[in-house]
Specification:
- This protein is of the alpha+beta class.
- Helices cover 34% and strands 25% of the residues.
- The chain is built from 9 helices and 17 strands.
- The strands form 4 sheets. A 9-stranded mixed beta sheet has the order 1-2-6-7-10-13-14-15-17, covered by helices on one side. A 3-stranded antiparallel beta sheet has the order 3-5-4. The chain has a 3-stranded antiparallel beta sheet with strand order 8-9-16, with no helix packed on it.
- Helix 2 packs antiparallel against helix 7 and helix 8 runs antiparallel to helix 9.
- The N and C termini lie far apart (54 Å).
- About 5% of the residues have low confidence.
- Bound molecules: adenosine-5'-diphosphate and magnesium ion.
- Adenosine-5'-diphosphate binds next to helix 8.
């Protein structure tokens, strides 16, 4: 009797596994100027990914700051307006994070991004006069949000590039949840969200890129074992413009100086269950630098997050919440609360 039961259970597990495996659905999508992969398992996997793909494309078309016809383009042109239900929660969260990070993350960064020539890909090193004119515009406390009505301050414009992929990841997670998907992994331009565990019950393994332009996306210096968390990385090596003298000007700008941030960090990864927060914080912490970031992490009382910090000289630091799920052949230091 015991033997029959054992065989029945074994066959059941085998069928469950093969059935789960059969219902994998994977999509490659190009959106938000990057390659994305969404992969999930379960009987609703195809439907869930149909909805996820549609949502990512919708968010891309709404948020694309360069595209005449997007909600954000119109918002910037008109100094305000009504935005859809997809956009207002993101802006609301962005405004809160700006105030929490003392403006290290600020969506009103757009005039500065433009001044440096990032949209056209043609470097312009601003003069002091130009910076003096533009810096006062980078202050999202001047943005008023009332439900879906937004009013920008005089001369302001917004860029959601520092938060959009994290928000898109949270939206896909909601779609998966609504479809009963309990296992999946999505990668939005190297920013990864894990849903539950792998179909075999083990943790998802997510690599963190070596922070230099040749290593990005191919070489990894560490692996995180995650279940239901995301890891979002910001680094100066990801997008940049090069001056005539070969100097690199990267795309994460310090709203206080107006220059590409030089905080002593070359890569910041944030681990959290909240991808919108993690995306905004990866940008903010990159601007803050080690000391401010650690103080911020110790005092933050919102949704929990952890950090992997790589300093310019290559030293690696992680916060204690991920010490059991972080592995690396490099040496690293654990920061305690
Ligand atoms: P990526 O989008 O390449 O993964 P980030 O999430 O760090 O990297 O976002 C960087 C983008 O955010 C920039 O390309 C720019 O559009 C915008 N940005 C740059 N500096 C800031 C800042 N201090 N606060 C908010 N957004 C920023
Ligand atoms: Mg970011």
């Amino acid at each position: 009797m015991k033997k029959i039961l054992t065989i029945t259970v074994a066959v059941g597990i085998f069928l469950m596994c093969s059935c789960t495996r059969n219902t994998e659905d994977v999509r490659e999508i190009f959106a938000m100027d990057t390659y994305m992969t969404v992969k999930c398992y379960g009987e609703n996997s195809k439907k869930a990914n149909d909805e996820a793909e549609e949502m990512i494309k919708l968010l891309d078309s709404i948020l694309n700051v360069e595209s005449d016809g997007s909600d954000i383009y119109a918002l910037n042109e008109n100094g305000g307006g009504t935005v859809g239900e997809e956009v207002s929660p993101m802006i609301e969260k962005a405004l809160v994070i700006a105030s929490q990070t003392d403006g290290a993350f600020d969506i009103s960064i757009r005039p500065l991004v433009k001044l440096w020539g990032f949209p056209e890909g043609v470097l312009h090193i601003p003069t002091d006069e130009e910076l003096e004119e533009v810096l006062p515009l980078i202050d999202s406390s001047k943005i008023k949000l009332n439900g879906s009505e937004i009013t920008l301050g005089e001369g302001q414009s917004v860029d959601l590039g520092g938060i959009a992929k994290g928000y898109a990841a949270d939206t896909v997670a909601d779609i998966y949840r609504d479809n009963g998907v309990v296992s999946g992994i999505i990668s939005l331009g190297g920013n990864v969200l894990t849903i539950g565990s792998k179909p075999d019950g083990s943790a998802w393994k997510v690599g963190i890129s070596v922070p230099d332009k040749d290593g990005a996306g191919t070489d990894y210096f560490a692996v995180l074992s995650l279940r239901g968390q995301c890891v979002i990385t910001s680094g100066g090596y990801e997008r940049y413009l090069t001056g005539d003298d070969g100097q690199i000007y990267h795309h994460i700008l310090d709203p206080k100086t107006g220059y590409p941030s030089k905080s002593g960090l070359k890569s910041v990864s944030i681990v959290s269950t909240d991808c919108t927060l993690a995306d905004a914080l990866s940008t903010a912490v990159f601007v803050m630098g080690y000391d401010r970031a650690v103080e911020f992490w110790r005092e933050y009382d919102g949704v929990a997050f952890d950090m992997v910090l790589v300093e310019d000289a290559g030293d690696i630091f992680i916060t204690e919440g991920i010490k059991d799920v972080f592995s690396s052949e490099e040496s690293f230091t654990v920061i305690e609360k």
